[in-house]
Protein: Gag-pol polyprotein
Amino acid sequence: MGSGENYKELRSMKLPICRKEIFGIWKERVRLFMEASDPRIYITVQEGPFIPMKVSVLDADIQTPKSYSEMTKDEIILATMDKRVQNIIVSAIDDSTFQNLIHCKTSKEMWDTLIVYMEGSEEVRQDRKSMLNQEYESFRQGKSDSITECYKKFYRIVNELMSYRRVFSTYELNGKFLRSLTKDWDTKICAIREVAKLAEISPPTLFGKLLSYEMQLMLRKEEEKNSKGEHREKSVAFKAEANRKNRRISSSPPKEVAEVNFENSDSQSSERSDSDADFAAFTRQFQRFLKKKQWKSRPSTS
Structure:
């Protein structure tokens, strides 16, 4: 693919707008974008524009810039590369940022000015780098952070440090991230260390293993919660049914008990009546007996 076709493809791609809070990440994306499109683009940003020169006809020791008509095809491509890079930078910044670069004549001057505007002077950049290093060393997972939130926060710091040219090994990143997790992860961390070497497992793969474990825990907790909820609902329903039965019993006494009591009452009343009649008959007989005895014991008048 020729340089012209590369540039057409480059123009069809859209870079994110540069923002101060994510400038370190943006700068790396632009660098990769330029290098992938044409390595000469980023070289132009770093070293300045290519200017084809010719030897002066008056003095062989003096060189002067070639005119456009004097350039070869390859020289024209390289000479116009600087304007292409300027166009890339301008298309990825807003109007207020462009006002600080409008005086720049080359892409290198524009790029260097943009870095100072976004990151500050060299002293400011070193201070920022020191702050990021301290933030990296003291990083810990928050109590309410999911593994995804923790991973994003950690690699935001790492990516910004990498934009300051700090180099990390896979072993260092994996080890630091695992050490930053809470005690709830100790069991999973031990399992990972037993089956894999931290220097050989990529950070995204490690994150995938941790995310899978977190999802399993969440699913288990949800199942336990649902199980407890069903048990609680059954208990409440049972108590409500028992209360309804108790209220129904207290408001209307059982008929069977009432009938039994009534029959018992009639039987007892009948028994009392029979006893009274027998006693009255016995009393009358005894009184007649006494009268007869008294009559026989009276003395004779003759």
Observations:
- The two ends are 178 Å apart (CA to CA).
- The mean pLDDT is 81.
- The first helix runs from residue 3 to 12.
- Strands lie at 53-55, 63-65.
